[in-house]
């Protein structure tokens, strides 16, 4: 395929971006009384409003033309039917099969993958229910009360985020903890607050070779053996594994009957839907875990079947491309006005930036356009009291996703109304800004001297014209969370498909894994290290002298 910047639809969008820059989002509302209806979509219990973006009907038409020129429809189908679209690793990308609760066959290399997926779900259910019922106990016969997931990256961020998000569904007396960092502080502080007799460790690692995870797992094992175990075999009651690597799991000392498998066609950052979600299932129960899969499946069906103009992930992706490639925005904020989603920005950072942080296209050429923006954010209203200053008055314009529930799990007093009034106010203020005359009027009311007023005035002006998407969902249920996460996954997919990059490999992450292993032996002993550049040598040698 030719570079996308050479496509006619790309060139037309470039021309169109110059026209759009002559107007403001607020003016677009003045000229179109139906703008909200035109640029919003209802799907189940969710409303997606994208009208506060610098777009017109023409923008959307041109973006759809780009999607068609990039063969988006065929690429979407190609993922769902198990083509090996992760071409650098020669793997299919079938996380959608993991939540294919409709049960239709999904073939990969001519074989239906659904029976093995269902078998693992049954294995998980059996295990989760035996822990909840107390049939499964620790080695001293006590019921499990704490679950510690040891994993990193894709084997941590998804389950950790979902366990926070679905806290209201934790009805089984299980508290979940997450250890990811190799920094000994992480495991030390966690081990301080758990009782070995009632703790289950889940070693979550697709490869079962990741240095951080295996080091943390060994430390946890030694701690457990020292604290309570009478025999090595007691480990079987306190350690289970989620992995694709049975050999390494056995070598670690985990009974293969307590291993839950997944497959190489599940990418790490897309693995939350597999047995990697075990900590989630233990915390909220298997029915709720499956409800989450079902919610994601509903979004998959929407994504696969709806025409582009009604397709939420496609529109989100195209808007992102509009901002990144045509309006020059290089970051994107995600602000959930939902405390339960405070870890969502962290999770989306990996999903988006690890997937689309690429600079070489499918033909091996360096791309001549930007790819993934920097994704960041935090929960509102907290974020309003920190970085919102930059979003309102800084020199960069940052497109934002605002998310909120219409019904709170904790509807006490005026809290939810106040939360939502902030949510509505921020999207409006970012778009409308405050003109010089409005700011002047406000200052005049304060009875300032003319000199004071002139000094303050420029600081009180808000340029506005700052775009946002608004998502309002009824309640953060397991199904709704599943749908939201699948929606973001597909947004990322569409952007990667249009940019013609491989969203499913991560050679940059692999590099980190190799480099640390090379330096580790050099940290032994006292000899001066001279094998690197002078800065790296200097830093290593300073550490060796001062440890
Ligand atoms: C995700 C990445 C990466 C991976 C971790 C952990 O897509 O590949 O974040 O999940 O490096 O890998 P393991 O699960 O193999 O330990």
Protein model, in words:
Strands 1-2-13-12-10-11 form a 6-stranded mixed β-sheet, sandwiched between helices. Helix 8 packs parallel to helix 12 and helix 14 (312-326) packs across helix 20. The protein has helices spanning 8-20, 25-30, 35-38, 57-69, 72-80, 95-98, 114-133, 157-165, 184-191, 211-227, 246-252, 278-284, 286-305, 312-326, 344-356, 388-393, 415-432, 436-445, 450-460, 478-499, 507-519, 534-546; strands at 40-43, 46-49, 107-108, 111-112, 146-150, 175-179, 199-204, 239-243, 259-261, 331-337, 374-376, 400-405, 468-473. The longest helix is centred in the C-terminal third of the chain and has 22 residues, at 478-499. It is α/β, with parallel strands linked by helices. Glucose-6-phosphate is lined by residues 152-155, 205-207, 210, 213, 267-269, 354, 506, 509.
Quick synopsis:
By secondary structure, this protein is of the alpha/beta class.
Secondary-structure map:
Elements: H1 8-20, H2 25-30, H3 35-38, E1 40-43, E2 46-49, H4 57-69, H5 72-80, H6 95-98, E3 107-108, E4 111-112, H7 114-133, E5 146-150, H8 157-165, E6 175-179, H9 184-191, E7 199-204, H10 211-227, E8 239-243, H11 246-252, E9 259-261, H12 278-284, H13 286-305, H14 312-326, E10 331-337, H15 344-356, E11 374-376, H16 388-393, E12 400-405, H17 415-432, H18 436-445, H19 450-460, E13 468-473, H20 478-499, H21 507-519, H22 534-546
Parallel strand pairs: 5-6, 5-7, 7-8, 8-9, 10-11, 10-12, 12-13
Antiparallel strand pairs: 1-2, 2-13, 3-4
Helix pairs in contact: 1-4, 4-14, 8-12, 8-15, 12-13, 13-20, 14-20, 15-20, 18-19
The chain binds glucose-6-phosphate (G6Q).
Glucose-6-phosphate binds at residues 152-155, 205-207, 210, 213, 267-269, 354, 506, 509.
């Amino acid at each position: 395929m030719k570079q996308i910047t050479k496509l006619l639809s790309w060139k037309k969008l470039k021309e169109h971006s110059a026209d759009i820059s002559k107007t403001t989002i607020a003016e677009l509302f003045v000229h179109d009384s139906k703008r909200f209806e035109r640029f919003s979509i209802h799907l189940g219990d969710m409303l997606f409003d994208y009208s506060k973006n610098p777009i017109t009907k023409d923008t959307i038409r041109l973006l759809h033309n780009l999607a068609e020129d990039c063969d988006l429809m065929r690429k979407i189908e190609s993922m769902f039917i198990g083509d090996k679209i992760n071409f650098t690793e020669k793997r299919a990308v079938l996380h959608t099969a993991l939540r294919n609760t409709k049960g239709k066959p999904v073939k990969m290399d001519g074989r239906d993958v659904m029976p093995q997926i269902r078998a693992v779900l049954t294995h998980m259910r059996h295990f989760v229910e035996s822990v909840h019922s107390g049939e499964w106990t620790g080695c001293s016969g006590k019921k499990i009360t704490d679950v510690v997931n040891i994993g990193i990256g894709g084997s941590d961020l998804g389950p950790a985020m979902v366990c926070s998000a679905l806290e209201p569904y934790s009805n089984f007396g299980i508290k979940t903890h997450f250890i990811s960092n190799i920094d000994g502080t992480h495991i030390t502080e966690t081990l301080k607050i758990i009782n070995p007799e009632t703790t289950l460790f889940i070693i979550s690692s697709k490869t079962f070779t990741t240095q951080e995870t295996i080091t943390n797992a060994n430390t946890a094992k030694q701690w457990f053996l020292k604290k309570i175990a009478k025999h090595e075999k007691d480990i079987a009651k306190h350690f289970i594994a989620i992995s694709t690597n049975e050999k390494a799991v056995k070598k670690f000392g985990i009974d293969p009957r307590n291993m839950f498998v997944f497959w190489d066609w599940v990418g790490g950052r897309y693995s939350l839907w597999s047995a990697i979600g075990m900590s989630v299932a233990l915390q909220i129960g298997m029915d709720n875990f499956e409800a989450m899969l079902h919610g994601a499946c509903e979004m998959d069906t929407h994504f696969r079947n709806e025409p582009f103009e009604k397709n939420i992930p496609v529109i989100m992706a195209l808007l992102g491309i509009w901002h990144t490639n045509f309006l020059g925005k290089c970051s994107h904020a995600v602000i959930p006005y939902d405390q339960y989603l405070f870890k969502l920005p962290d999770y989306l950072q990996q999903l988006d930036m690890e997937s689309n942080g690429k600079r070489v296209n499918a033909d091996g050429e360096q791309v001549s356009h930007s790819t993934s923006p920097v994704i960041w954010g935090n929960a509102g209203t907290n974020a309003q009291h920190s970085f919102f200053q930059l979003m309102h008055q800084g020199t960069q314009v940052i497109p934002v996703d605002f998310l909120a529930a219409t019904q709170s799990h904790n509807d006490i007093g005026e809290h939810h109304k106040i939360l939502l009034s902030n949510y509505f106010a921020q999207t409006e203020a970012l778009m409308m800004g405050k003109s010089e005359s409005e700011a002047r009027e406000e200052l005049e009311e304060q009875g300032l001297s003319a000199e004071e007023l002139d000094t303050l005035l420029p600081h009180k002006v808000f340029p506005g014209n700052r775009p946002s998407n608004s998502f309002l969902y009824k309640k953060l249920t397991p199904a709704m969370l599943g749908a939201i996460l699948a929606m973001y996954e597909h947004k990322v997919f569409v952007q990667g498909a249009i940019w013609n990059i491989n969203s499913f490999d991560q050679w940059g992450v692999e590099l980190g894994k190799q480099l640390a292993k090379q330096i580790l032996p050099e940290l032994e002993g006292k000899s001066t290290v001279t094998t690197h550049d002078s800065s790296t040598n200097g830093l290593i040698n300073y550490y060796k002298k001062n440890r």
